[in-house]
Fold this sequence. Notes:
The strands form 4 sheets. The chain has a 7-stranded mixed sheet with strand order 5-4-3-6-7-9-8, with helices on both faces. The protein has 15 helices and 13 strands. Mean pLDDT is 83; it is low at 1-29. It is 47% helix and 14% strand.
Amino acid sequence: MAMTSDPGAGVRPVGAGPAGAVRRGRRKRSQLTALLLASDAVCVLTVVLLLGRGEPTVVVVSTSTLAVHALAGLYRPRMDLSVLDDLPLLAGAGVAAVGVAAIAEGALGLGDVTPWALWAALVQTLLLVGARAVVYAVRIRYRVAGRVAMRTLVVGCGGLGAQLVELLRSGEHGLAPVGFVDDDPRLPAGVRPLPVLGGIADLERLVREHRVDIVVIAHSNVPEMVVVDVLRSCQGLAVEIFTVPRFWQVTNTHRLVQSVRGIPLVQLRRPAFRAVTWPLKRVLDVTASAAGLVLVLPVLVLCALLVRHEVAAGPLFRQERVGLDGRTFALLKLRTMPPDAASDVRWSGGDGAGPVGGWLRRLSLDELPQLWNVLRGEMSLVGPRPERPHFVERFTLDHDDYLWRHRVPVGVTGWAQVNGLRGDTSISERARFDNHYVENWSLWLDVKILVRTVGQVLTAAGR
């Protein structure tokens, strides 16, 4: 997703955001993951049929192993395929599955974990190791033969980039480099192993034109923030992004770090809207906002009557705000100041609030009507707070990261707000916290923010 802001022209999206990611095509399903799942399922089924002997604990041990493998990341696609690297996790998964069976024994009365069940678990682990070794051997052979290859762009045409290209050309890692991307290539044209297809600003177009699956960020002369902005613009595409860490020569490796013959590659986290759990965010929004509107209806009615008495105007206040992908919507609030004090271009109207309005703002009760915005899909319970178009344009010009907040739905509360950034506080800090939320979203983070918001409301820690 990319957006642009033009003074006088409003805020408009360029390209598409989270919704557009689906239209542009879903991420290719990993053949390796499917093969590993299939081989594990065959092993588990074999043990249940041949060694089950009607013992429920054998079935529990066998079937729970698949779930333990998934939680341990044993189905995660990788460049390096080594059953020896997986062996500790495979053995640990077998022990964990026996533990699950023991818990099921106590909770459900399925019977004792017998010596035969332990023997079946050992046989199953050996089968799983052997099957995985076969899958890896076949997969590597297909890679080297060029029958399995992910089209790859290397950002940075220098010594490290050229080294990566030469290493990837062996095929054993399953990546097929197609070209470099660089504004200022350090390698002369005559010694480049692949052509330079364009500059960093062309990355999104090149990914589409060359049907690229993988982007590897090596070191280049392009300023870091320029690269960050371009990578964010590619987040709606079905492409995985890896980066060579700085000081990679002394970087420790582990299972979460890929490796190309000694060169570590760190996979950037997939955008929130491409996470498997992302649709659950909308489920949480709908159920919680609907329930919330029912529960707080008496409070809303009381607040509306108090507002009507104080400002002698309609209690509901509508104001244009900028939401997901730069789209505008009418945000609902309880009126906390007289109608003639409201402004779309004045930063703070807090001085005009009367006693009731000030009380509503301190307790954040003026935000309750936004539950209707959430139910309508214009907002989420948790996300970056929406701002007026005038200030979005202004802050976008003053703060490089500001507009990237709009990659996810705006929220009634957010990560910046529960960290004390409310009212007249640093816009740069807000943008940093909001983008941190976007890059690190999880359902648990949403729950944590909601819990902290309730705590702040109860302690009157509002504006």
